[in-house]
Predict the structure of Chemotaxis protein.
Amino acid sequence: GAGDGAPPARGGRPLRAWSAACSTGEEPYSLAMALLDSLPSRDCRDTAGRTPPRAGAASTGAPGISILATDLSSRALDQAQRAVWPIERASEIPEERLRAYMLRGTGASAGLMKARPELRRLVTFRRFNLLDAAPKRFGLFDLIFCRNVLIYFDAATKASIVARLIASLAPSGYLFLGHAEGLHGADHRVRCVAPSVYRLQPPAGLEGSRNTPSPEHASCLRTSE
């Protein structure tokens, strides 16, 4: 699951993250849990400014977080949107997060677990091919995860995909790749701040979201591979 020690939210525009090859949803939901854990309850308010009731440690609204999750497989996306997994996968999630963010199935759903609504509403799923240019409606992201996908492409295609991902980063945003993957070409705009973690250097006078994590916090957001 996503690491503990996620960055604290500090107000400003929402922190935007993109899981660019989300498969059946484990990565974006794991990231959502890590980011939710980092939000003080005063930042978890609904649009009317009310602090919502809490379920364990989970807040039912977090306007400071927006996660886009994309994949080429419609079948994988359908499963990801259902947010249901075999209970055996619970061993991969810290106990506190299980209690806060997951529901255990009963009756016909015995042996399954499901993400709580407050977690699911943070993630939007879209079908997308990494070989295509990201549509402008996607916007820019503070965090982009594209892990264990580039290994399936040739060098030229890898370089093209990475260049497009970097173009989708907000100022000071981070790109997370798999441990066996790299930038596949020099890009003076980004620098490695932790193993497999790259940060876009903003032009002079431009800054990212006030929620953009420090390099130390960003390195904690790498999910298990």
User: Anything to note?
Assistant: The first strand starts at residue 15 and ends at 19. The longest helix spans residues 26-38. The two ends are 9 Å apart (CA to CA).
